[in-house]
Prior knowledge:
Structural class: alpha/beta
Number of helices: 7
Number of domains: 1
Distance between the termini: 17 Å
Bound molecules: zinc ion
Largest sheet: 7 strands, mixed
CATH architecture: 4-Layer Sandwich
CATH class: Alpha Beta
CATH superfamily: Ribonuclease Z/Hydroxyacylglutathione hydrolase-like
Number of strands: 16
Helix content: 10-25%
Strand order of the largest sheet: 1-2-3-4-5-8-9
Amino acid sequence: MSVLTVGEAQIHRVEELRIPNTIAYFTEDEDLLAANRHWLAPHFLDENDSFDLVFQSWIFEADDRVVLVDPCTGNGKPHPVPFFDNLEVPFIERMSETGYRPEDIDLVVCSHLHHDHCGWNTQLRDGKWMPTFPNARYIMRRSEFERWGPQRDRHPVFDYNESVFERSVQPVVDAGLAELVSGSHRLTAGIVVEPAPGHTLGHQMLHLVSGGQHAFFTGDCFHHPIQLVEPAIPFGDAEDLEQAIAMRRKLVELSADNGALLIAAHLPAPYAVRARREGGDLHLAAAGTQEDLK
Ligand SMILES: [Zn+2]
């Protein structure tokens, strides 16, 4: 069952993990929370000021292509954070509930190359990391690829992403399935990947237009919607905080311009946020199915 609709496109999700989280990790500004509770509650902020940080992939069909966005952490991959270490999650089984099998996927889009956005790129088969989606083109941003790959000597390498490139990216390249893009890159009539730097320097987002409706799959541009109200609230290590702040401001404007859904990687139900202009003011609201908005 789909969780969001964008024109003709039904957006499905496949959950890998969820981590209960508290808003205190983002802000302890009681006035700010009070002013936004009316649209954040109950899903993005419950009565205990908590919410779930969800690790999930999005799947949709548009322009005769089946697209999977942000393939989570993957199974059997060592990670210094126990929560992600050597997962054994029935992700592919859960995916089959959406009606799609790995071989049905035409395009895999990684917003960036942190472990939780490219992990299911590969699976261990006979002791080798092999592409999970054998018929897909894997769309990655060239600058992001170089930051974690061949040219990474120029950049700090973090424990949490150690060997992610070797396990989850290089095997896709070796299989001839990687497509490195730059700038604003059109994949189909209604699907464009665009630079969305900040969280990582080579972070990208996917812009879907279907039936005159718009959505942006925004990866880790923001982790909680409160960051769209106060873009300077940090979470996770933005590689460039100034760019991350500018990007969050831009997303709110983009959404207000055409009613676009902002579908972030880690949002819980109802999974999306939408902005609108009223007079000179920008207002944000949770967006999703009636069922999920209850
Ligand atoms: Zn993430």
